[in-house]
């Protein structure tokens, strides 16, 4: 079953997607499936293991169920000093 998910992109993912956010129809059941779908579309270079997933502004497990209207963000590693 397809649902609309709002996706936020940060850092390298934002650059590779060419946008900061989008609303997408998807049949992905969880962030892991959604990232795999987006990786195929945008050729994201970062493997899932290097990212954190967040749903509705809270970090979550990769198998957290997604619902219509959720806001999903994939957070790449942060470097700084």
UniProtKB/TrEMBL annotation:
Gene3D superfamilies linked: 3.10.20.30
Keywords: Nucleotide-binding
The keyword Nucleotide-binding appears for this protein: yes
InterPro entries xref list: Beta-grasp_dom_sf (IPR012675), MOCS2A (IPR044672), Mopterin_synth/thiamin_S_b (IPR016155), ThiS/MoaD-like (IPR003749)
Domain of life the protein comes from: Bacteria
GO term, biological process aspect, one: Mo-molybdopterin cofactor biosynthetic process
One GO cellular component term noted in the UniProt record for this chain: molybdopterin adenylyltransferase complex
A GO term for molecular function: nucleotide binding
Similarity field: Belongs to the MoaD family.
PANTHER family the record matches: MOLYBDOPTERIN SYNTHASE SULFUR CARRIER SUBUNIT
UniProt protein name: Molybdopterin synthase sulfur carrier subunit
Organism: Kingella negevensis
Phylogenetic placement of the source organism: Bacteria, Pseudomonadati, Pseudomonadota, Betaproteobacteria, Neisseriales
């Amino acid at each position: 079953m397809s649902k609309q998910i709002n996706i936020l992109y940060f850092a390298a993912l934002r650059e590779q997607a060419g946008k900061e956010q989008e609303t997408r129809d998807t049949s992905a059941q969880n962030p892991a499936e959604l990232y795999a779908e987006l990786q195929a579309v945008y050729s994201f270079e970062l493997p899932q293991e290097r990212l954190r997933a967040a749903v509705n502004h809270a970090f979550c497990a990769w198998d957290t169920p997604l619902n219509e209207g959720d806001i999903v963000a994939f957070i790449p590693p942060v470097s700084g000093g």
